[in-house]
Amino acid sequence: MNGLLKKIALYLVLTITAFVVFFPILYAFLISFMTGGELLQGNLFSKSFHLENYQKAFERLPLAHYLMNSFIISLSVMIGQLVVSSMAAYAFVFIPFKGRDAIFFLFISTMMIPWEATMIPNFITIQQLDWINTYQGLTIPFFAMAFGTFLLRQHFKTIPKELDEAAQVAGISRFKFFVKIVVPYCKNSLITLGAYSFLTTWNMYLWPLLVTNNDSVRTVQIGLKQLRTQELATDWGVVMAGVVVVIIPTLVLLFIGQKYLQKGLAQGALK
Amino acid sequence: MKDSLEMEQPILTDQPLSWWKKSLNIRTACLYLLPSFFLFAVFLFYPMAKTVYLSFFLTDQQGIANVFVGLENYQYLLQSESFRKSIKATILFVLYTVPTGVMIALALALLTNEKVKGIGIFRTMYASTMGVSVAASSVVWLFLFHPSIGFFNKIITAIGGESVSWLLDPSWALVSISVTTIWMNIGFSFLILLGGLQNIDEQLYESAKIDGASYLYKLRRITIPMLSPTLFFVLTVSLINAFQTFGQVDILTQGGPSESTNVIVYSIYREAFVNYQFGTASAQSVFLFLCILIVTIMQFKFGEKKVHYQ
Amino acid sequence: MKDVELTHLSKSYDMQTEVLSDISVSIHAGEFFVLVGPSGCGKSTMLRMIAGLEDITEGTLTIGQKKVNDLHPSKRDISMVFQNYALYPHLSVEENIVFGLSVKKVPKTQRKKRCHRVAKMLGLTDYLNRKPRQLSGGQRQRVALARAIVNESPICLMDEPLSNLDAKLRAQMRSEIKQIQRQLNITMIYVTHDQVEAMTMGDRIMILNEGKIQQVGPPIDVYNAPANEFVAKFIGSPPMNLAKATIYPDNQTLSVVGRIHLQLPPEDIQRMGTKEVTIGIRPEHLQLATSESQQPGSSKFEVKVSHVEVLGNETLLNFEFAEGNWQAKWNGQWRVNVGDIVPLSLHYSAICLFDTTTGNMIKQPTQNEQHLIQGVSI
Fold this sequence. Notes:
Helices cover 75% and strands 0% of the residues of chain A.
């Protein structure tokens, strides 16, 4: 009896907190289906589903184009980070050389430099390279990632040394070992890192704000800012429709990748 | 041992080992590290140095350093009322968001670490805020905070209270932004803490169960000590994130009202890209860098001792 | 066929302490050569130096008359089996076996043929599509073995390959590995800490301790004539009994704590030239004293049994002797109780003597039970 009561109490607490945490997202969903009138009345549920808000959102802004841009940019950064970080992590784990620890420490110390502290010269660099309003301007600066290297190194280290040695005896080249053994072996941590970098890139705000000044490569996040300034006080339904469109891809990715993120990121946190 | 004496002289094909062959490893390593190094050099080390350099100059609109002014930019900052406000806002913001955020995430993680049916759904819901971008969540909360049709004021007026101008009242604005930020960060902190909890060896709890330990005892003696490295990590990341806050300020308040939410990164952004004062903006950036450096070092110095590593 | 020759080989990680020092040995083609020693003696390091996985600090390593000190592992014509098998977890058994062949430019059809031949030899045919984690320990071991022999290298290195198996399987794999080695006529260099493996598998064995060679030779020779106290203790199970002894040249006797008195031939006393010695006697040479065992050159002494192990076909008696625990091994089943006083006898011909200061052997036993089968007709 005591156990049952405890269980009920637990579910009650879980449900209430889950509702509180999830409420803003739910609220955005609900409002995106409301007409302006319903909104002003303060209803929580719309009497009927209106899809006009979505239609309007796509009409007023090149939202589809922004979505495309965000996909291209997030995907590029994800692939770039995976390639660059896993190469570095491989070197730190499997290639013995003098000063390896010192160089690794240098890598880790880059995590202490806040990216925002470097944004002014970076902006100037991008300007000088004529990379304003280009995909490369939005992606390449983020390819190198100390955290990713660190995370992958942690996992690469769990590969038994003998696998590498067996490959050496068999004459398998470093690159083949890397591609055929290390990458499949550490599939999970690569998925974790991939999901993480896609998520963070998709959600990036400040840098796209700086290096885009027309629609050509602008991302959805900046689109939201535009929507917000355009629609202020009037059409909140349209704004929320925009929000829903923007968060759905990442929410889906999060739901799929949650298990990986939960395990993988925690592993990175431990030393 | 006889064998070694009877050994016949081997024909040594002794090609002198060149430096080239011996350095094979380091050359391969360089190849693998080159992309990272190149990118770090161009987009991190160089701009960091450049930031420090710029902080000693007055610049033109293109960011070209014109006049060397020494420490004048820093002097100017220290005397500037606006910068002092910005520092105050940043510190308050950190204090509001970091402890509360981590505590809430920890509580949720502990709650969902119970093995009951359907727990996966709750975990997903708690983690969901990680999938919502800064821009999106700011826009949603902007509406929640809306003075007339926003959810909060509707509730308050419904129960007979007086509506609050959340984002327009200097005494409320920073709190409102902090609440938004805490909500946004719950997902990430929760996910990592939950992962940390699940890494704790189940047998520790089983043995405590046999000893008849209470929930709180287990929490104090097993969970928290075993979780401490993860907790430490989450704390550090949250702290650094708090210093780097930008998006929610840009969308919710633009630093106002009366600069009460003008946190440091927003202040840098304004100084550099609105006022084109790259010199003073750089000086602020250096300041930000030092803040994060000090925080990280302090955390490692004081935190490391209390953290239990397996 | 290729000999492996080590000449004054040394290994040091910090340029001060040597993990291996001055190792010189020649391993003949087609030989089963076992490196044996306690953990940390440097045996694995030596194997890894031969493989090319560790740098050689000093000395020369030649394989087939070619200096290979700085040659990449893959260019040394070797294969290797690791203690934990080093199987690629995400590849199937077949893929694991042929993984190295692709590098050697073996055509695909050939690869398959060779893989199946080896699989058949090791009884793996039914498991080729499984993943390593779906296999038992013994099967994994066989896959590792298959991977080593499939590329037909003339030299195979094994680093404690059986240590993760249970006792029964280990005995079975011992003979299997030995058979394969003979069948394929490969040179095997085999590292183990288990002296039973060394004794049963090796054509010759090398005993290492603290980075130095203690003795090299056929297992039986090492057993019969251990080069020093360390080898005497290390080879043989139960180990050789050792105790301090003193030689009295005046009355040509050797005395062990006043309890054993042995008559010594004068020429031995002269040859040994020391008075402080260590006596060593194999447990099987400590027999029950009977009236007929009272012959010249033997000594009788009584001991109090502290522990008895009856193993069915043999009986082990433990007793305290000269500040140590000694054991006697008798064939058959004996009813002896703890606390019993048992008279034992030993013969001078059965004992080893070691110089106490250097530990080196100065007298080897002459009495060995060597039986030869000659013209048996049943």
